[in-house]
Amino acid sequence: MPDLIRHPTVFLAACGALSAWLGLQFNDGNYGEAPQPGLYMVLTGVWFGLALGVGLWRFGHVSPAGVIMVMLVTWIAWEAAVNVAIQIDGPLLAAAGPSLIKSCLAGFVAGAVGAAITWAGAAAFVPSLRRPVAVSSIVMAGALLGVLLPATNYFDGGAVLLVAWQTAVAGLIGLNMLGSERPRSRVTLAAGG
Questions:
Q1: Nearest-angstrom CA–CA distance, 49 and 52
Q2: Full-model pTM
Q3: Bridge partners (DSSP) listed for residue 31
Q4: What residues have CB less than 8 Å from 60, skipping those under 6 apart?
Q5: β partners of residue 39
Q6: CB–CB of 47/165 below 8 Å?
Q7: How many angstroms separate the Cα of 186 from the Cα of each of 7, 12, 122?
Q8: Interval 126-169: pLDDT, tens
Q9: Total Cβ atoms within 10 A of residue 123
Q10: Using alpha carbons only, what angle is made at residue 191 by residues 183 and 17, rounded to the nearest 5 degrees?
Q11: Fewest beta carbons within 10 Å, which of 19, 39, 114, 167?
């Protein structure tokens, strides 16, 4: 197991899962009232930014200033995604009335927005993340997992969405760092990878 956790995909996925758990356990609330734009679940974005910053520092050789920038951009991505979801599921498509399709659409778009901004913050510092396969896999995973948004009303609050989304997006960032030009250490998988 120690060799496995030194793999960027596993390390970042684990950090993503931990940040989701922290976001669910330690959250300072909202600064705004839906459906108005605001700052929602602020610490959730901060925890995810910290998780990505640590992973990018460890495997992508990002400087401390770069880590702070990744944290800030990731928090902005979180807030943008939440506000996009609130607007689509609320006033933007209010005439459509409440529906599962509208909530799924809100989650899909918000998931893509959050993943795209998160990717951009990381890719600014890690050249291997600038490949088309990196951006497309990260944004598509974010969009598809965003469709879990309606499930947050029925299962464990935000856990069903946060754990899946943050684990997958962070893990894909780690996976796409495998081709990084400057590995910090030799990383091997026990099962021949």
A1: 5
A2: 0.86
A3: 39
A4: 122, 125, 126, 128, 177, 180, 182
A5: 31
A6: no
A7: 9, 17, 21
A8: 999 999 999 999 999 999 999 999 998 787 678 899 999 999 99
A9: 18
A10: 65
A11: 39
